[in-house]
Amino acid sequence: MRKKNQTILITGGGGFLGSHLCERLLDEDHDVICMDNFFTGSKENIRHLLNHSGFELIRHDITWPIYLEVDAIYNLACPASPIHYQHDPVQTTKTSVLGAINLLGMAKRLKAPIMQASTSEVYGDPAIHPQTEEYWGNVNPIGPRSCYDEGKRCAETLFFDYYRQLNVSVKVVRIFNTYGPRMQINDGRVVSNFIVQALKNEDITIYGEGQQTRSFCFVTDMIEGFVKMMHTPHDVTGPINLGNPGEFTMLELAEKVIKLTKSKSKLVHKPLPKDDPVRRKPDISKAEKILDWHPTVPLDEGLERTIAYFRTLLKK
Ligand code: NAD
Ligand code: UDP
Known about the structure:
By secondary structure, this protein is an alpha/beta fold. It contains nine helices and 13 strands.
């Protein structure tokens, strides 16, 4: 049974996924404390929530300790786009590692469950396909993506040690590429880049040959997965993959975006970033079985909804 009227902390609540989660939990009558340092998030994402009686905003960097009284914690704070997490890589690792220590300490003190937004990046450039949770990954520990990948891997280690050693109720989800409204125009990830470029009839930047694949999940599906995960019993710790198994090359994605926006954009090729994973697709059998969770929004429909969002934003 779901306990109503909890006070729930969402770190990274001003970001893309965090702002949707704030909205969802307020809709379920919970009180929400949104914590963010606004490195990549935006107050615009949550402006419509600021007057909600159940909503509180705290500007705070999770690398520093903080004492609050809450019933559950979702830890989403961390820049997620490669250009942003590589901007200050030391801070990225600190956010994952020190942030996890601070929030796990809070969860331990409060006996509150805590969900960690981990990532498909823990699999690195995967040698098995599709990726199952049992796969240990193929990650470069010293490359430009390592601050993010290894930071998230170390955070997972901390979560599982707090579970085994201190009996904290941990919930680790490995998120595969997720997109939708409230990504920033300058986010830098592929879906928002392609849509913004297409709507402006600018060149669409394909990194490398564009044959690398990703699996794209629409934001509402992902948020449903988070909430289901939080409501599992103590012994369900994850890690559990959450993502849409549909697999597309970046060329296929660009063609879809051009078609749906009726854009005049041309494709241009740019250098492939170092250590860019070649293929990525989640095996979601665990999420289906344990959470009874399935993505429901097909890529074309999710793209249309995201395009509508950016169209409005660009007109402002
Ligand atoms: P986002 O960049 O929009 O959101 C991250 C939020 O965290 C931002 O609001 C940012 O300002 C905040 N933040 C960053 N560092 C912070 C710090 N030290 N203290 C407090 N706040 C801080 O990205 P998103 O796509 O919403 O991602 C949310 C979470 O999900 C991240 O942890 C990310 O690693 C994870 N994730 C997302 C995806 C995806 O495809 N969207 C995939 C895998 C994992
Ligand atoms: N990509 C691209 N053009 C862009 C942005 C990204 O071709 O303008 C490619 C990138 O090289 C990668 C894929 O799109 O292969 C997904 O990149 P993103 O930054 O969205 O996330 P990643 O899954 O790499 O973390």
